[in-house]
Amino acid sequence: MADEITATIRYVQRDESKDVGEKPYILHYAAPDGFPQNNFTIKPVHGIKIHNFRTADITYGKHGIGVASLNSNGMKPECFDDDDWVESVYLPELHRSVCDALGAKDMTIFDWMLRKRAPSFPVRQPGQENGEAHQPSLSAHIDYTTAELASRLPRYFGEGKDEILSRRYQVINIWKPLTGPCRDFPMAYLDPASVDREKDLIAVDEVFPTVANEVFQVRWNPNHKWYYVPDQLESEVAIFNAFDSDKGQSLAVPHCSFDLGDATGSAVPRQSIEVRAFIFY
Question: What are the phi and psi torsion angles at 53 (to 5°)?
């Protein structure tokens, strides 16, 4: 298996001369007539080298990216359509797997999401199978800014927030395909050590009808070093960091999906599950 491949990664672009003074935003609902849906663009950058995680000297402790094994026996793709099954079977097994892999004492899951690629993706065709499902996310991003996470602590932990803040914790994402080996729009992970956090990260408001979340979108930088897990199996979960109570976001991992292309890709549309959690040490 090759130590690297070449692919396309999508990055944010802004016209700073035009948008100066206006915070970047995107509306996740139909904008009013004459109001822009967003004030930035996502542009593909071609010829990006993406390195083989399996043969690289990359560890969760140093780079915020890791892979753990999962007992996936009996976990058929259709099982994940049952929310109760996910909550009662998958998430407890994931809890065990991740805590064992990271040497953590406990994990609190606060969100999870299925993604099912429609055959026409990234083009959307109304009425197509899985056309209304969550699709792979193609732009390089981090799911939260530090300020966004701070605003969520009271929501998740209420009066227990102060006790949480007294412990060592991390916020992590956990991703896996429902079937493997995954050769259709796999995940790519950007080594945090190759990111200029002052220049490369742009805070963006993702605005929904009842809430706005602040995330980081990523500008292209030729120093970026990307990794992926070739042929990831349904029995493997990728774990990547978003925040560390001791280190802040120095190990937060920008990530996105990318197209392997016709030569190495698969005709089977990807289905996956991602989980977001606090991990405690």
Answer: -60, -35
The pTM score is 0.93
More confident site: 39 or 83: 83
**Amino acid found at 91:** L
At 171, the amino acid letter reads V
Q: Which domains does the chain have, with CATH numbers?
A: 4-280 (2.60.120)
**How high does pLDDT run on average in the chain?**
91
- Nearest alpha-carbon partner for 173 in 26, 39, 67, 43: 67
Burial of 199 (0-12, 13-18, 19+ CB in 10 A): exposed
- φ and ψ of 194, to 5 deg: -95, 5
Q: Which pLDDT band, with edges at 50, 70 and 90, does 160 fall under?
A: confident
pLDDT digits over 188-246, tens only?
999 999 999 999 999 999 998 888 899 999 999 999 999 999 999 999 999 999 999 99
Nearest to 226 by CA among 187, 191, 265: 191
Mean pLDDT within 42-53: 96
Provide the pLDDT for residue 254. 98
Give the C-alpha separation, 139 to 267, whole Å: 22
- φ, ψ at 171 (rounded to 5°): -105, 125
> What is the secondary structure of 8-39 as a DSSP string?
EEEEEE--HHHHTTS--EEESSPPPTTS-SBS
**CA-CA distance, 254 to 225, in Å (whole number)?**
11
Cβ atoms of residues 179 and 234 within 8 Å: yes
- For residues 157 and 138, what is the distance between their CA atoms, to the nearest angstrom? 31
Residue 20: pLDDT band (50, 70, 90) is: low
Task: State phi, psi for 278 to the nearest 5 degrees.
Answer: -95, 135
Provide CB contacts within 8 A for 179, sequence distance 6+. 77, 234, 268, 271
